[in-house]
Request: fold
Amino acid sequence: MRRAVNRMPLPMKDMSLSTFLKGAAIAGLMTLVISLVMVNIDWLGPVYSSEKEDIVTLLNVMIVLSSLVFSIVMVMMVYAIWKYRAKPGDESDGEPIHGNTRLEIIWTAIPTVIVIFAGVYSTIVLNDIEAKADNGKIMEVDVTAQQFAWRFDYPEQGVTSTELHVPVGTQLDLHLNALDVIHSFWVPEWGIKRDLVPGADLPGGDDIDDTVTVTPTEEGVFSVVCTELCGWGHATMRAAAVVESQDDFDAWAADQTKIPDEEDVSSGVPGGKGAGVFDDRDLTDD
Amino acid sequence: MESASIAVGSAHAHEHHGPPEAHSSSKIDRQTLGILLFIVSEAMLFGAFFASYFFLREVSNPTDVWPPDGFELPKAIAGVNTAILISSSFTIHWALEGARKGNREAMKMGLAMTWLLGATFLFIQINEYVHLGFSARDGAFGSIFYGLTGLHGAHVFVGLLLLSFANIRAWRGHFGTKAEDHLGVEVPGIYWHFVDVMWIIVYVTVYIL
Amino acid sequence: MVAALKNPGMPRAGLGFLIGGLFGFGLVVALRAVSGLEIFQTEATGYPHVIVPGITAPIGFLIGLGCFDYWFRWASGAPTIPDDHSQHGAYSWKDYFKFNTDHKVIGIQYVVTTFCFFMIGGLLAMLMRAELAQPGTQIVDPGVFNSLFSTHAAIMIFLFIVPVFAGLANYVLPLMIGAPDMAFPRLNALSFWMLPMAGVLFMASFLAPGGAFDAGWTGYAPLSTGAPLGQSFFNLGVQFAGASSVATALNFLVTIVTMRAPGMNFWRMPLLVWANLSTSLLVVGATPFIAGAQFMVLMDRAIGTNFFQAAAGGDVISYQHIFWFYSHPAVYIMMLPGFGIVSEVISTHARKTIFGYRLMAIALLGIVILAFAVWAHHMFVSGMFAWLRVPMMITTLLIAVPTGIKIFSWLGTLFDSKLHIESTSMLFALGFLVTFVIGGISGVMLGMIPLDIHVSDTYFVVAHIHFVLFGGSVFTIFCGFYHWFPKMTGRMYDERLGRIHFWMTLVGMLGTFIPMHWIGMEGMPRRVADYAAQFGNWNLVITIFSFILGVAQLIFVYNMVVSWRFGPKAGDNPWRAKTIEWLVSSPPPVFNFDEIPRVVGGPYEFGVPGARHAIMHDGDGATVSGPEPAVAGAASGGGGGEGGGS
Ligand code: HEA
Ligand code: HEA
Ligand code: CUA
Ligand SMILES: [Cu+2]
Reply:
């Protein structure tokens, strides 16, 4: 304890400012490389809703910050292993350094700043993706899940379907309800997910947050994926989500006046209709 | 419940075969601390049921009526029962004072009366269950009512069990005036106070509020 | 024969199990007869004929084994015979199958038993990976797959990670604080023996009609309340495992508070002791909540209550609140003891005192407090109160701060050290720093609501789980196994095999769990036996690496078993560590110490000439510095750095 514990801003006995700067530079470079590689990888898959765009931006910012944290840890660790490794047969002890208040404050403060930033940014993004559409075009759809099938009711159009058809660029207000156990609504391309809770439509279900909004921006056929474990058919509980032009949608809605008969229901059961939404593969022939 | 064996075991007969006496690094006695921590975890168990109570009453209750229409609780009888249980807290305290002061009669009587009061409470409670007219299957109210009072009843039962042991030992002449010699009264006593306090909370939330 | 059934032990335990089961069955039959119900079960009655024996049979086993003999004698007022110490120490392998109150025996019982559960849980994971190697269903049907991951996770969590830490601490903690045993040795033994019972219940569910429990380890209602019989075994098994961990936690707390050696004030306790203090606080505060949650599910199932039945006024989401109020703190129950182990190992092998010791201890307590305020981050997409999300996000993110303090303090410890990375335990400690930071960062991402909305319930979460639980907890467990193996067995393991084990585990672990981040974000949901073809290639890669990971564990088992039997003698203090457990012989004497040691300094005073942590015998207490006399049980000490080499 007699030795000067604190030379530079750092307690390390033989770490000069230049070593420190070198380390910092390596950490910075590593951050840059990791971030560049990671941000350019298409992590989240296709981004086909305006909500998911915000999420992707948030993810990219987080990737940069995380690479920074990870790089700092790695550089410190590898440097220490390289520099302070004991020679074979060296039985002596390290320096009796018990701590350094300044350093401890630094590594409490910096993560605090980072996570507060992450929290504030996330809150802003959350408010954005849950905000009502600017153009005021909102379509209501009642989504009902049941082991292991989906049903979509369009109160305005008076239509019921086992496929989710939506006009592109229109904000959807999905009202979620389940008939038996909890299910979860997710379209990976839209990035939006929310559980469907049994009892949401009952008088006691007022406190259940059962409305989720999403604005699809790209036409195509996607899968509605059930992401909450709901029983043996969970893996195959899918329905098609069809995003189409307003005209196509209107035409489709006009066509759907009757409730589909039994055979047409997307059951999610292998062999049932709707199971085929698994890409190019038919589930029945395993 | 170590005290008896420690008292006998440390007679130095086994000096070189037994473990060394542990250093006591705190003023608080091991068993007292143990029972206090146990009570913390018990309180958390009740906490889980109170959380459920909150959800059933405030969150998923479609009306503002609680208990919902059709459920009637015998507040008065339960009130009397509450008084019985509370008085047993005084008798157990009396027993403990007796043990401390070497008044064996007071200790024995206090323990016996506490046991009887507790048993009376449990008996009235079961009687209430029989005459309530609704069961645990009747709506959310039935479930949480039986859940909370049943959980508490189970604790009374365990408390009675502990008190039975204390009674048996007291009547067979155990327990002395030194602090470590009447832990067998003190520790069940602490637990019994907890059971009483818990009942007051349960009674107030379930019957009154 | 008759004597074997009269005296405590395995035969009587078996008998007790039978009698307990019959008693429970008879009780149900009798009660149903009295109350005029149909005597034998019908599907709708929730199988009380199985559930009640599911409680009474294990209790019968425990009584038969002798867990309660002493207390029965005490309760009936019979004189409690002076302890003849026949329940101390283990002199042959048979003693490990007895009711033994010696914390060192219990520690080994714990470690070995829980490691067996790790192998079982791992085998179930291998089955899962085999099924997932290709899209489509090949080996098991979807229902069985659901049972596989549910039992995999339940066994890993409730029967491996949580109790194995209790086992390691059971062995070393009393030694570390200079106590002759735990505060309540009989309660300690009872805690251990509840675990095999929980295991029996979990396993028995495979025999139940309808298969093993399959609602995930989270057992969300109302899926679990409507599930077949197997689910009840989960509900019951969790009660036994939970009771076991609460009892152990009480024991640790009382031991730490009341039995520290003279001079061992709170700021001289090794960080492992601090870590177990914090963990025990979490257990005492949180575990009752899972007991409550599973009781309610069991009652909904068995007697038809409506806690979670929406149609009858129940609240579906309340299950998740109650469950996560335990299960989030539980993830720190599964991590903090590991932090403690890593602190010991890093300090010892860096030959340096822990950087910022006090802040390390404070950070642990900070995590304990925050842990109770973040549970709803598992429910961001559950449809719970929308207003609760942002506060829960903030507290969740803040947990990165105390955790970061720990990470950076360990790194700070490495600076200006004399780093020895030859020993496998240090390799695992350093590997832990890498993998846990990755897992923690993915946790922070999950904590950010908009990201969680997309990746919740996908393989991204599975990746996070395994980076923190495997890269975090399991790495620290191996770290502890290797570190204290010489102390527990008196023998040295094979470092070369240890290093192979480490590198294979690290590579296997990274290869298995890194790609899961990606397929999760791309759109693969978790808990599925079958998936879209686009994820086929990555899943094959994952499966191959997971087999490497599996084989690596076999090397570990081989190393441990063979070294225990044939390894070279280790010496009392092969790592030249300072804490008290290294100042006694290896394995330690039956009663730990002849005399309680006196603590005279901090636990990690490396490099301070003459500094010592503890003095073993009063005789040499006068001199605080200088070499120690060569008394058995005090092989090394002093700052000079003499003593057994590795
Ligand atoms: C050992 C177990 C363990 C540990 C330690 C953690 C640690 C953390 N976990 Fe994890 N978690 C699990 C086990 C664990 N988790 C499990 C089992 C599940 C799934 C349950 C299920 O559904 O089945 C889960 C799920 C889970 C979710 C829910 C995901 C979902 O289902 O949608 C979330 C969301 O917030 C989360 C967050 C976190 C956070 C923020 C931490 C933090 O504590 C991490 C803190 C650590 C660090 C951040 C790294 C070190 C710090 C630094 C180097 C400082 C600088 C860092 C920054 C500034 C970022 N976890
Ligand atoms: C401590 C906890 C822990 C540990 C150690 C592990 C270890 C492993 N886990 Fe586990 N896992 C969880 C906790 C844990 N897991 C949890 C909580 C879940 C969530 C469950 C849920 O959704 O409810 C989960 C879910 C989970 C899934 C997702 C299931 C799904 O959502 O569909 C997968 C898939 O790959 C998986 C794989 C593995 C693998 C390959 C290992 C490997 O690391 C295992 C390595 C060990 C061995 C292999 C054992 C030793 C070797 C042998 C016995 C010899 C046999 C060897 C061969 C045949 C090669 N786990
Ligand atoms: Cu519906 Cu999973
Ligand atoms: Cu959590």
Notes: The two ends of chain C are 49 Å apart (CA to CA). The pocket of dinuclear copper ion (ligand 3) is lined by residues A 145, 148, 183, 226, 228-230, 234, 237 (CB under 6 Å). Chain C is about 60% helix and 0% strand. Residues 142-176 of chain C form the longest helix (35 residues).
